[in-house]
Each structure stands twice: as C-alpha cells, then as structure tokens.
Task: inverse folding
C-alpha cells in the first residue's frame, strides 16, 4: 500500500530513503496511467506522476487493475516488494510475481489447491458437510459477506481431485466461481465481450446495480428499460425492498425477480444489514443473471 498519488502515499519515499537509492521516473508506468485515465475520461493531474517514481534498478510490476504499478527491489542479498494496497490490485500481482519469486528461491513449496466462492450458504453448513470427506487435506474458510470463500490444499493432486469432485456435487447450486471473482465481476467480464445483451428494470437498488456493472465501453449491452423490439439474452424486473427503503428497523425484506421473457417469478428473502444489504442484492442479482445466461 501507500503507492497512490496523494501526499500521504509515502511508501516509495520511505523505501528509497532507507535503502539510500534515488527515485527514478518510469515512462512506461506514466503512459499506462495516461491511457487508463484517458479511456475513462478522468482528468490526468500532475500528482499522478508520483506513482511513476521507483527506486533505481527496480523491476516494475505492471498493474492491469489500477494506476499504481508495484516493483521489486534487490539490496544486500535481500528482496523488497512493493505492491498496491487494494486487494483486487494487490492479489493478482502477488500471485503472478511474488509467489514465483519465492518459489524460485526455495522459500515456498507449491501445493495443489483449489478454491470456490459460494453464495447463499453459511460457513457452519459448509464445514459440517465438508469435514466428512476432507480428512486427508487442509481446508480454509473466509466469510466476506455476501460470499463464503472455501479453499482446499493437498500434498498430492489425486487427494485433491477426489475432494473437489465431492465438494462440487454437494455445493454446485451455491458456487459462484472457482476463483475469487465475484458475480458482478464475472458479469462485467461477459458484458465486456459484447456478445450478450441484457435488460434490467431495477426498482430496488436505486441505481447501485447500474453503477456497479455499467462501463462506457459496453454501456449499450445493458438496457435499463425493457424494449420489446430488442433481443435479450436475459431480461429481468426487480421490485420490492419497500421495508428497507422505509427506514423502519425490520430484520427481513423481500425482492421479487420477474423474468420478463419467460414470465416466471422468483421471490427472495433478504436480511437487512444496513449498507451491506444492497451489496448483497447487487451480487445476488448478478448471480441470478449469470445462471439465466448459462
């Protein structure tokens, strides 16, 4: 963290001072920042240039998810790695660059592993069933509302394969992805291909769903008002959540999802947890759309 453009982003300065190295401007990083901001119609300001300063002789780690590139600095037989703070930017760089670096130096032994992102099922429910067939491997859980991340690690591939098959059969209805990719990001990825067109009439999230999945480069792939002359791969109407928006402290509310093309309806109960409620709704609706398009 601390690799941003503001005055309190001091990581690069502190590292350079400690190692007694000059900070050198990287033209490639600057060009990537300009291209990224220009593509999104975001003004390019002088303080963005700070993100292009790296200790001399650094190996630059290109960040495809944001404006802050990372870097690797070697000194006195040691290695220092600087990565951007946001998880969606940091973790891909860690997987791509840091883990291979540690492996190449014999500091990390790779283990066969697999992970899933689940929705609509609790950690206790999953653990109760998983522990019946995973005695030979290591299992990890991480709740990150509205998701549950489950990871399997094994010493041998064949041990992992058996457990993966049983897990998939047991929890297939709840599996959003076999990675850390949320339903909203999976939907964005699909829409970015421009091979699909969907319609969402949203009377529930007051614009949050639109804000989450709409980008200028594929805005024409999503209609927010049904057009009978258009051909859609999925078309839904969201209604409900009146108790939530009333501000009265209730514990639960309902969403009604109407599939416009098939005229089928699905009613879902929603736990009211303040701001997190709408995050759940957005991710759940994206998941519903993904399943309808599958």
Result:
């Amino acid at each position: 963290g601390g690799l941003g453009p503001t005055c309190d982003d001091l990581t690069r300065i502190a590292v350079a001072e400690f190692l007694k190295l000059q900070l050198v401007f990287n033209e490639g990083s600057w060009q990537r920042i300009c291209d990224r901001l220009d593509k999104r119609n975001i003004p390019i300001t002088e303080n963005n240039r700070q993100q292009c300063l790296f200790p001399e002789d650094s190996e630059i780690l290109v960040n495809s998810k944001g404006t802050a590139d990372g870097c690797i600095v070697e000194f006195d037989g040691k290695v220092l790695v600087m990565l951007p703070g946001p998880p969606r930017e940091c973790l891909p760089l860690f997987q791509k660059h840091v883990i291979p670096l540690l492996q190449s130096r014999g500091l990390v032994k790779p283990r066969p592993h697999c992970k899933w992102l689940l929705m609509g099922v609790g950690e206790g429910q999953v653990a109760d069933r998983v522990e019946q067939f995973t005695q030979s491997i290591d299992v990890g859980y991480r709740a990150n509302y509205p998701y549950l991340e489950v990871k399997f690690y094994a010493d041998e591939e064949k041990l992992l394969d058996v457990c993966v098959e049983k897990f998939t059969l047991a929890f297939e209805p709840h599996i959003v992805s076999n990675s850390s990719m949320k339903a909203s990001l999976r939907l964005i990825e699909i829409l970015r291909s421009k091979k699909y067109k969907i319609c969402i009439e949203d009377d529930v999230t007051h614009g949050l769903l639109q804000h989450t999945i709409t980008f200028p480069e594929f805005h024409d792939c999503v209609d927010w008002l049904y057009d009978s002359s258009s051909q859609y791969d999925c078309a839904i109407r969201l209604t409900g959540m009146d108790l939530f928006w009333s501000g009265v402290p209730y514990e639960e509310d309902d969403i009604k999802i109407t599939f416009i093309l098939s005229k089928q309806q699905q009613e879902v109960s929603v736990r009211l947890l303040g701001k997190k409620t709408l995050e759940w709704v957005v991710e759940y609706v994206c998941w519903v759309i993904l399943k309808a398009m599958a």
In short: The mean pLDDT is 93. The longest helix spans residues 275-293. The radius of gyration is 23 Å.
